[in-house]
């Protein structure tokens, strides 16, 4: 019975974290003056990657890179590092939207001619998934990272936030 309860609560944490990562990514994109329609169109594939790799424990970061098409330099970047140790309390689930909005207000704003891409970063040994490939980050020359703590938490997992400016 203990295994069933653990699996249920871990699955519930994965669903909560995935849903709130979607909302967080959408908020960051929209508040930077760019339509999140591409995120929503690609969400089924992105969510499949997030849920699969959260379940296997291989997903370590989700990155949003804002850039001008055909350039190899990011105009802005957001990272959501994932941790597999939460509070330890099964029903502890939260998203700090007010704190996220404060961070967005402080961050570098990409110009309106920018687009974005979502990168799911995994540890070695992650299961291969169709629709995903390896890639490299865009340059962040001239920018510096600001680690800002946790924005999403469950009893089993957390998502932090780092923004570049």
Word description of this protein:
By secondary structure, this protein is an alpha+beta fold. It has a single domain, classed as Cell Cycle, Spindle Assembly Checkpoint Protein, Chain A (2-Layer Sandwich). The chain has helices at residues 2-31, 37-56, 97-106, and strands at residues 59-67, 74-83, 94-95, 115-122, 145-153, 158-164. A 6-stranded antiparallel sheet has the order 3-5-6-2-1-4. α1 (2-31) packs parallel to α3. The N and C termini lie far apart (49 Å). Residues 1-8 have low confidence and may be disordered.
Give a brief description.
The chain has 165 residues and is an alpha+beta fold. The chain is built from 3 helices and 6 strands.
């Amino acid at each position: 019975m203990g295994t069933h309860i653990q699996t249920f609560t871990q699955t519930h944490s994965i669903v909560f974290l995935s849903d709130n990562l979607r909302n967080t990514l959408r908020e960051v994109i929209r508040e930077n003056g760019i339509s999140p329609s591409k995120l929503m169109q690609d969400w089924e594939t992105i969510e499949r990657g997030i849920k699969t790799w959260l379940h296997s424990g291989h997903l370590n970061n989700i990155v949003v890179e804002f850039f001008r098409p055909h350039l190899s330099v990011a105009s802005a970047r957001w990272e959501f590092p994932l941790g597999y140790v939460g509070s330890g309390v099964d029903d502890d689930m939260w998203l700090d939207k007010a704190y996220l909005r404060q961070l967005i207000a402080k961050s570098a704003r990409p110009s309106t001619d920018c687009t974005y891409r979502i990168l799911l970063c995994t540890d070695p040994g992650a299961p291969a998934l169709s629709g995903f490939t390896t890639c490299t980050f865009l340059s962040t020359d001239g920018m510096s990272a600001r680690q800002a703590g946790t924005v999403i938490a469950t009893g089993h997992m957390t998502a932090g936030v780092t923004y570049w400016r």
